[in-house]
Amino acid sequence: MINKAFSFCCTCMLLLISLFANAQENQNQNTETGPVNEFFRSNGKIYVIVGVLLIIFIGIVIFLIALDRKLSKLEQRENNSHGK
Amino acid sequence: MEKHWWKALAVIILVYVIIAGFTIEIPIIGTNGQSSRGLFFHVPMWICMYTMFTISVVNSLLYLSKYDLRRDAYASAAASVGVFYGVLGFATGTLWATYTWGGSFTRDPKQMLTAVALMIYMAYLVLRLSIPDIDKRARISAVFNIFAFALLIPLTYIIPRMVDSLHPGSATTPGFASSDTDNHMKWVLYPAFLGWTLLSVWIYTLLVRYKKLELKNIFK
Lengths: 84, 220
Known about the structure:
Number of helices of chain B: 6
Order of helices and strands of chain B: HHHHHH
Transmembrane segments (chain B): 9-29, 41-64, 76-99, 111-130, 142-159, 187-207
Mean pLDDT of chain A: 76
Strand content of chain A: under 5%
Radius of gyration of chain B: 19 Å
Low-confidence stretches of chain B: none
Main location (chain B): membrane
Shape of chain A: elongated
Largest sheet of chain B: none
Domain Cytochrome c assembly protein (chain B): 12-161
Distance between the termini of chain B: 25 Å
Helix content of chain A: over 70%
Mean pLDDT of chain B: 89
Distance between the termini of chain A: 27 Å
Largest interface: A-B, 18 and 16 residues
Organism (chain B): Chitinophaga rhizophila
Number of strands of chain B: 0
Structural class of chain A: mainly alpha
Largest sheet of chain A: none
Oligomer: heterodimer
Number of domains of chain A: 2
Order of helices and strands of chain A: HH
Low-confidence stretches of chain A: none
Subcellular location (chain B): Membrane
Radius of gyration of chain A: 21 Å
Number of domains of chain B: 1
Helix content of chain B: over 70%
C-alpha cells in the first residue's frame, strides 16, 4: 500500500519535472500580465521566494501531520491489543 | 481536535512569520543589507535548541532522582531534537556569516564555541549508542547530559559576551536589547520565537510517542 502510494508520488513528480523542463524552454514567453503575475514580479520578485518558502513549510507541516496521525493510529492499535 | 490547537497555532504563526519576515520594512545597515531578515529564522533555531536542551536536562535530573526509565527516554528525545535544531542554527549562521563577516569560519568565538557545545551534545548521543545495557546507559548519559548543559551555557552565552566577536551580543557589539532591535522587527521576531518553539515541541512529542511505542515494556 505504502509502496504503491510512493511510486505514484514519484511518477507524479517526474511528470511535473518534465512540465517544468518544458516551461524552462519557453521562459521568454512568460510575460502574461494580470494582477497575480504583476504582484509576483513586484519588489524584485521577492514574493516568488516567499511563495517558495511557504510551499516548503506547508510541505513539512503536511508531513508532520501525516506522521502524527500514523502514530495516533499505532497507539490506538497498541491500546486495543492491551485491552483484550 | 482540542488537543491539537497549539499545533495549528504554530502553523498559523509561522505562515505569518514567513510572509511578514520577507515583506516588512527593515532598516538596511552596512554590509547586512536585506540579510537582517535572517533574524526571524536563524535566532529561533537557537531558542528551540535551548528549549529542547532544557527539557532534556530537567528530565535527566528527574531520572537521577527516581531512576524512572521513562525520564531517560524523554531526555534523549529532547537532546536529539535539540541537536537537530542546533545544526540548523549553525548552518544558517554559517551561511549568513559567509556574506556578512567575509568568511564561513572566521575564528569567531561565538561560532567556534557553539560548534564545541554542539559536539558535546553529539557525544551524548554517541555515548548512548555505545552502552547496550539500558539502566547503565540511562545513568551514565544522564550524568553526561548534566555536564553538557553546564558547559552549554558558558560556551554559547557567557564566554562570547566577554570577548570580541562579530556576532551581536559580544563585548564590542550590542546585544539583543530593547534599544538596538528595530521595533517593526520585534513584531515578527517574538511571534517567530513562539511559532518555531511550538513546532520544535511538536516534533519532540512525535519522537516521544515513537519511543513510547518502541519501549512499550518500560512505558506500561
